[in-house]
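Extended Data, panel c. Modelled sequence:
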Amino acid sequence: MSHGTHSRCLYATDRYIGNSWCILFSHPADFTPVCTTELGAFAKMRPEFDVRNVKLIGLSANGLAQHDDWIKDIDEVTGSSMHAGSEGSFPVIADESREIAYLYDMVEQSQIESLATAFTIRSVFIVDPQKKIRLIMTYPASTGRNTSEVLRVIDSLQTADKAGIATPVNWTVGEDVIVPPTVSTADAKKKFGAENVKELKP
């Protein structure tokens, strides 16, 4: 990929994301079984991400023609609907040169040292509407991601941004949240209502 191509890719990606949140997730290769299950799972969950104003973008170090054939496999194997124009469709970047993978540190050091062509690792980037990376998760090639956890993190980040709170371990929507220590109990009661605030520790 030339620098000009890279610039066009970033411009197209920026236009696609617009004022939405974005999840960018990378894959070692097309037609590999773990990756196939992952893209199918994200495609099935796309309506949940749509409700939260989140755009999905995949990345794999293979060409566009292979991506098109792989999407047919994904739909067949997982029962998803990723093909263009369908409910579960989203773009998959063709990063044949690994330029984006190297820029975003999606390549294991051991792969760089031992192979002429390094595989991308399973990285997840959650990007907010201001184009700030808010979370990075990295998985080994042998371990598929948990799509429910990605959705949970989106809920946590969006809730925290909206309400100025933090979320405890294993938090899901509807459960208690944490008011930051910088906010006094009195101010918390003013902001959220006294009936909604309980103080465990002063």
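Residues 1-5 have pLDDT under 50 and may be disordered. This feature is highlighted in the accompanying rendering.
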